[in-house]
Write a structure and sequence with these properties.
With 258 residues, this protein is an alpha+beta fold. The protein contains five helices and ten strands. The protein is 17% helix and 24% strand. It has an eight-stranded antiparallel β-barrel with strand order 1-2-7-5-6-4-3-10.
Length: 258
C-alpha cells in the first residue's frame, strides 16, 4: 500500500537470532523437529540420450538463473512438490524474476531472492501457493525452498537456497506455522560455487532492510527453463493476477531485514 513502505514485512524463513531465541525460550513442542532429515533428493536418471532419459528430464525440469555473480542451474522436483514447482515455473516463464535480486544473504544459513528489483522495490505477485513442506524433502545444503510468511500457505515468488543443512526448517507437524516448515522443491545441480560466492559477499543495511543486503547487490539477469529457450518468457512479463506479498509479524531485531 502507498505510504507504508517502512512497515512492509516480506515473506521469509525465520532469522537465526529469532530461531535461537525460540530454542531457548519455548518448550519442546515449538521446536522444529528434524522429522524429514533422513529424506534425500529424488534420484537423478541416466543422462543417456534415450526416450526414458528424455522423459525423466521433462519430469524434472531445470531452470537456469543467470546472475551478476555467475550462473546457477536448478533441478526441480514436481513429483514431490507439484504446486510449488508449477508456481515457480510460471514466474520463470512470465519473466518475473528477470531483474530481481538476491536481497537477503546470511553466511552459514541461506541466500534469498525472487521479489525485489535492483531498487529494492517489491514486485506484485500472484495468489499464494499451498504449502507442500510435508513432502519428505529436507532443507539440506543446496536445496531451494519456498520463502513464506507466518502462515504455511503464504508463499508467492520468493525462494531461498540453503547454504548448510537447515533441518530445523523442515516439516515436523501441521500444528502451527512454526512446525509446518518450508517447502523444498528443487536443488542446485550446477553453480553451487556461485551460491557460495554470493554468500561470501559483505552485507549491510539498504532500502527497507536493516541488514543482510549484499554489496554489491546480486541481480538475476534472466531466468528460463532449460530447453525451452529464453524467448518463451518474453511474451508475458507481468504476473497474471494482482496480489501483493503477505505481511508477517515481527520476528525480533532482524525482522525488518528479511
Amino acid at each position: 500500500m502507498p505510504g507504508l513502505r517502512i512497515m512492509y514485512r516480506p515473506s521469509f524463513p525465520p532469522s537465526l537470532t529469532a530461531m535461537n531465541r525460540r530454542l531457548t525460550a519455548l518448550t519442546l513442542i515449538l521446536l522444529l523437529v528434524p522429522f524429514a532429515a533422513s529424506a534425500g533428493s529424488p534420484a537423478t536418471t541416466s543422462s543417456a540420450a534415450t526416450p526414458a532419459a528424455a522423459a525423466a528430464a521433462a519430469a524434472q525440469p531445470e531452470v537456469l538463473l543467470q546472475t551478476s555473480q555467475g550462473d546457477i542451474t536448478l533441478q526441480l522436483y514436481p513429483g514431490k512438490a507439484p504446486k510449488s514447482v508449477a508456481n515457480f515455473l510460471q514466474y520463470v516463464r512470465n519473466g518475473f524474476y528477470d531483474g530481481t535480486t538476491f536481497h537477503r544473504v546470511i553466511k552459514g544459513y541461506l541466500i534469498q531472492g525472487g521479489l525485489y528489483t535492483s531498487q529494492l522495490k517489491p514486485k506484485r505477485t500472484r495468489t499464494p501457493v499451498q504449502a507442500e513442506a510435508d513432502n519428505g524433502l529436507s532443507n539440506l545444503r543446496g536445496t531451494i525452498a519456498v520463502a513464506r510468511g507466518a502462515a504455511p500457505n503464504s508463499g508467492t515468488s520468493q525462494f531461498f537456497i540453503n547454504l548448510v543443512d537447515n533441518r530445523r526448517l523442515d516439516y515436523s507437524s501441521d500444528q502451527s506455522g512454526l512446525t509446518w516448515g518450508y517447502t523444498v522443491f528443487g536443488k542446485v545441480v550446477k553453480g553451487m560455487d556461485v551460491v557460495d560466492k554470493i554468500a561470501g559477499l559483505p552485507t549491510h543495511a539498504q532500502g527497507p532492510f536493516a541488514a543482510d543486503v549484499p554489496e554489491p547487490l546480486v541481480v538475476i539477469k534472466s531466468a528460463h527453463v532449460i530447453g525451452e529457450g529464453a524467448a518463451a518468457s518474453g511474451s508475458a512479463k507481468a504476473p497474471a493476477a494482482a496480489h501483493t506479498t503477505s505481511t508477517t509479524p515481527a520476528h525480533g531485531k532482524a525482522a525488518s531485514s528479511k
